[in-house]
Amino acid sequence: MIELEKVNKWYGNYHALVDISETIHKGEVVVVCGPSGSGKSTLIRTFNRLEPIQSGRIVVDGQDIHARGLDVNAFRSRIGFVFQQFNLFPHLTVLQNCTMAPMQLRGLSRKEADERAMALLQRVGLASKADAWPSELSGGQQQRVAIARALAMQPPLMLFDEPTSALDPEMVGEVLLVMRDLTRDGMTMVCVTHEMGFAREVADRVLFMDEGKVLERATPDDFFNRPQHPRAQQFLSDIRSPFARDA
Questions:
Q1: Alpha-carbon span 27 to 144, nearest angstrom
Q2: What is the pLDDT of residues 135-165, one digit of tens each?
Q3: Domain 2-78+156-240 class?
């Protein structure tokens, strides 16, 4: 589904991604974690060319995404992306947010788009909010609408870039439950998150990053219970006991 070969990314003199090679298989759920500034969000944003790379190769669903002549907008329309911020259109209702792209980019009729959107809003528990404006929703509700909107395009791949980081703590759970349900349907997912409980429960693999490098690749059981890289060991020790260094 996603193949990376020696991917490098710089911001000026700062080497943000360093020789990353990785394969993510169809139906796999991969969680990318690590300290702030480690390159997690930069990495996931290269998967749909929101971030350019300076060297290497990325293939998504059989398509070299830097091939000459690629229709970038058409390519991006096949990938679901949920951001830290909800990015809903404030002048459109919840239903309209979910139907606009399928109608304009997939050619669905109003009836088809409405039916698909309502089914997805039902799935994320927000069918009753179809006629509401985004400003009338809580942060957790807006993020669930953002997930429904992405799913309305029926993407083979969903990318999540810290989808709960902008939410109040009591709203995090409702979003994670929706994401967990997606994994049960066999959706290919890559998720950048600090929610370690979510990673432990739903991930097939965990990628741990620091300083632009993938330092550890492991199952959740191995990563959380038997981390191999010293930096991963330190990271897990710190998040489990943030006051340990002062003890």
A1: 21
A2: 999 999 999 999 999 999 999 999 999 998 8
A3: alpha beta
